[in-house]
Amino acid sequence: MRRIDAKRVAVAGLAAATMLAGCKSIEGNSPSLIPNKALVISRSLSLPMDTLALAAGAIAVVDPLAPNWRIEQQELGADRYAFALTKKRFATGGDGEAMQVFKRRVDQLASEKGYASFQLIEYTESIESHVPIAQRVSRGVVQFARMQ
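^ that's the sequence the OP posted. Answer follows.
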């Protein structure tokens, strides 16, 4: 079963509120969730509230400051580790950087744990087809060696 995080729920709620705000009844005026007002920035520039709500929703979904890759690691025992990398759904570029991110994390773990070297046992890159947008993933297993 997939886990639902708070960010996805918030984004879905914001999207639903934005869609509902655009709905009006055919007969007469009905109250909308987003007021028909504008944020006045200067005499010649004002931004409508619906535009601001749409921009806030887009930023929440895209999250430009979040890292492109999420890394999960699991200790398999006997100085062996498995890594799973998942690329965020909305990113500009970074499609060929999975091995760099993987190696950076392996080097960081080797330094933290005092390993002298490592051997790459297994490594794959693929695309998982999730609804609504596919996602790049990478998996790898590494065998570390201690200093002699």
